[in-house]
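Re: How this chain folds, sequence and tokenised backbone to follow

Filed under: protein folding, tokenised backbone structure, sequence and structure records.

Contents: The amino acid chain and a row of whole-number tokens, matched residue for residue.

Body of memo: The sequence and its backbone structure tokens, given next.
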Amino acid sequence: MIIHDLELENSVLNQFVLELRDVDLQRDTLRFRKNIERIGEILGYELSKVLDYQSKTAQTPLGSKTILVPENDIVLCAILRAGLPLHQGLLNYFDKAENAFISAYRQHENDQDDFEVIVKYLASPSLQGKTLILIDPMLATGKTLENTFKAMKAHGVPKHIHIVSVIGSNQGVAYAQTIFPENTHLWIAAIDEKLNSKSYIIPGLGDAGDLAYGVKL
């Protein structure tokens, strides 16, 4: 896997990540969602640099200009529900992309720390020969990405695979490397040191889905 850790570069991206993490600022749900959307835009811009390009000519009022533009057939796949703001940020830039949505959640038995990731819903176009962008804001254990990838195999074999995340753990990133093809790209805003006993990222930011859309039962 080719890892692009954008935290290692100085950019305005770090300001948005700081605001997501801040326990006081993250109480503003509108701001929280907007910051994730902004991060999606920045990661999408960085991702666009490694796409395939072709020449197209634009006719202006005064002449013509040949411009290199992306030629990939892109499918954006958001993992519900936390992935929706990140998905929107990418869609702002890849506005001609097809879209897929998948539900994946942790099921804890008897309130134990151990859990199983359950996938119950998938809506997706064909992935055959296309560029698949998997959108998972919190790459904790990597199990959600694993089950999502397995579920999507029935829809065809993509030509390229990209993963876009806001925050990951070292453990989750390492696990994802064992699941996906070697030429898969991971675009991530920050990688944190560890997981706690409940497999939440430390220091992380908390539950991204709850912070974006409210606490669930």
